[in-house]
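Incident log, structure service

09:12 report received: a user says their structure output differs between two submissions of the same chain.
09:20 pulled the input from the user's history:
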Amino acid sequence: MEKVQTARVIEFYSNSCMVRLGDMNIPCLTPKKLDIVVGDEVEIDVINDSSEIKGKIVKRHKRRSALKRFLKGSVKTYAANLTHIGIICSPIPETPRRFIDKWLVLANASNLSAFIVANKSDQTYSKDYSGKLDLYETLGVNIVEISAKEGGGIEKLKNFIAMKSTIFVGKSGAGKSTITSKLTGKSLKTQSLKKSRGLHTTSISSLYSVEKNIEIIDSPGTRDLDISNIKKIDILSAFWEINEASKNCKFSDCKHIDEKNCAVQLGLKTNKIATSRYNNFLDFINNE
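09:34 re-ran on a clean worker, output below:
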């Protein structure tokens, strides 16, 4: 075996990780200066001893994409080399439109594609919930309806995420763990880690590779979302219909509130822009 080889980080702890090298999983030390996260492609220095093969990460390859967490003025990357974000919605408890719009903003700022997984399709939808799904479908967001509990739509979801690297996000009770377990065949209960890895946490970020060249990254902390550090231009571009309307405003510095000849206000009055989207846009743009 060559001493230095390229591998993929499939589990990340606090000061170490597990990498996949061919058909082997190798525990590795992770120097803090390299800022390693799950999904990273790395070069490892392979160490053979009498008990097991181990390694040390010596280089991180350039990331094709990075999902970042903005929290209290700091920015932290917690998954790399993704292609898609699956926003899990449910009728009970009902997923707020604000939650959906925040993730659409973060996906846009991270150059990732977002889609909606409408879970619990076996339940009766309220008029407001059905209208919510219709709104995002009209805006061009792909929606896959499933019932993770009953198993309905799982194959449809697998086909949709084939050849993609996806992370699922959802509010508590939306079914994120159930969906990820159904797709990966793994029970995603909180795991206790070996003392030999020198860890003091039960949260693991993991990458699963399954059939149809599907990659799924499961990471803790994706419920807490702060977008206050995202640039206003990136927020605007995530509200596609508002961004498009704003191009027709009379003034280039229009705030889209009460200015004369504001095309966004006109779109709001003629129902071309949903009130919920407009209100969320103003809140996000003003860091509220």
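09:41 both user submissions now match this output. Likely a transient worker issue. Closing.
09:42 reviewer note: The helical segments are 97-109, 127-138, 154-160, 176-184, 232-238, 240-246, 263-269, 275-285. The domain at 66-218 is CATH 3.40.50.300 (Rossmann fold).
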